[in-house]
Amino acid sequence: MTPYGNYGHALLTSGAARTPDQVALTYCGEQSFTYDELNRLVNRRAHALLAAGVRPGQRVAALLNETLRVAEVYLAQAKIGAITAALNPYWPVETLRAVVASSGCTAFVHDATVAHVVEEIRPSLPEITTWISAEDLDSGEEGEPPLGAFFDDPLALYYTSGTTGLPKPVVHTHASSLATAQIWLDVPRAPGSVFGTGAIIWGIGFPAIVGPALYAGMRLVLEQDWGPANFLKVVPREKVTHVSQIPSFYAALLGDSAHEPVDLSSIRVIMLGGEPLTASLLARIKQRLPEAGVYSYYGQTEAPYTCMGRVDDGSTPLGSSGRARTGCAVAVTDPSGARVVDTIGEINLAGPHRMSGYDLLPDRTAEVLRGEWYVGGDLGTVSADGVLRVLGRREDAILKGGVWTQPAAVEEAATALDPVAEAGAVGIGDGRILLAVVPRAGQTLDSSKLSLELADTLPPHQRPDVIVVAESLPHAEDASGGPGKLLRREIREKYQHLVD
After folding, report:
1. Is 436:489 a contact under the CB 8 Å cutoff?
2. Where would I find the AMP-binding enzyme C-terminal domain in this sequence (predicted)?
3. How confident is the model at residue 164, as a pLDDT?
4. What separation, in Å, do the N-terminal and C-terminal C-alpha atoms of the chain show?
5. Most buried of 36, 120, 149, 408 (most Cβ within 10 A)?
6. Cβ-proximal residues to 162 (8 Å cutoff; 6+ apart), any chain
7. Cβ(287)–Cβ(254) under 8 Å?
8. Could you tell me the pTM of the whole model?
9. Tens of pLDDT along 170-197?
């Protein structure tokens, strides 16, 4: 069995053999490791796991929040063939307990930042027979451990957001994760490219961020905080060239004057996904970072980074997510399952990066895996030349005046107005639209005036019925330090009384 079918070996050991003295990882500006040093460090962790009794195929819950620990432990467990249940340290305790209880894990590794949580849940998890502190995972053995899994063997359980119930465990294999690791092969990079990121790397962020950076031979800059304030410190210090974020991050960054004196000229590639990128925000990004290429991407935990395309140079239409990347495929189907072009339907994703299924949930797996395709509930269109335009979730669509629209259309019109930093639109009651807006720093907003301005640019079925001026909009907590995805359901819950 070739060792390159093992995720940890293909990502890290191969880099150590290829460029042993190149810096692979920098941690919080305090520690740096070459590819050879990082490989030997991971090997020490792997031998320590074996000494603790962890075996190939064993499920190991990993509750880690220190980014360096995440990288070390996930890679070590990949090498020895343990299956990592990648837990979210921001889950409520009850969610965490329920996920672990249903995971089939018999071992649990954690770092010091979550020790108090571990102490709370430990008595109620008798199925966990081995508890391991990541700080104690060390061994004097730096040689390669015996590789315990390859190709179609399960690598990890990565969990969905759980917005409609308990987070679902998505099974990714060594092969699917290696396919995801090829992201940067479709994006320009150069010798010395530096990828910067924060604590979002636990979970699916690991194969979507850490894996691609190491696979492409980049230097990975890991921070605990990747919010705007620390971003402005780290980018000039580390000469970061590549970043992957959500558009809301740049709405926050550029909505404050703190960025103005900071040298951000090293940035060459900005990858944006997770929510729509509006024309007005793209214009602000390009004004501030004219040398950076801006890319949109689309994927889900079940099929990460399926599509991508550069949107600032005309090669990919703004508002789209580009084309399927090398080795992947995208299609849109109507309710009968027939493939359609330039017609709204369900988005289908396929490729070697696709999950193998939801762990222990055969009925849910059967709902979304249709042959080679993953169909996850997003609506969109695909053009004749393969460009995907994502319209959003079925449940987010707004019906007004007998016409369906997606919130992004209303939000884009609002943020195109100079005083508006961010906007969130939701459907309320019987065919009405509520729009919440946040003013840019130093600006004020008048809802009546804004309503008149939007009436000039939006058709009747997209015009908001109520506009609320807010200090901020609710976002998911994703540990990046900056805003996560916009939580439209919380906008609805907070302000719907204004419409009723």
Report:
1. no
2. 410-475
3. 58
4. 64
5. 149
6. 91, 95, 168
7. no
8. 0.84
9. 999 999 999 999 998 889 999 999 999 9
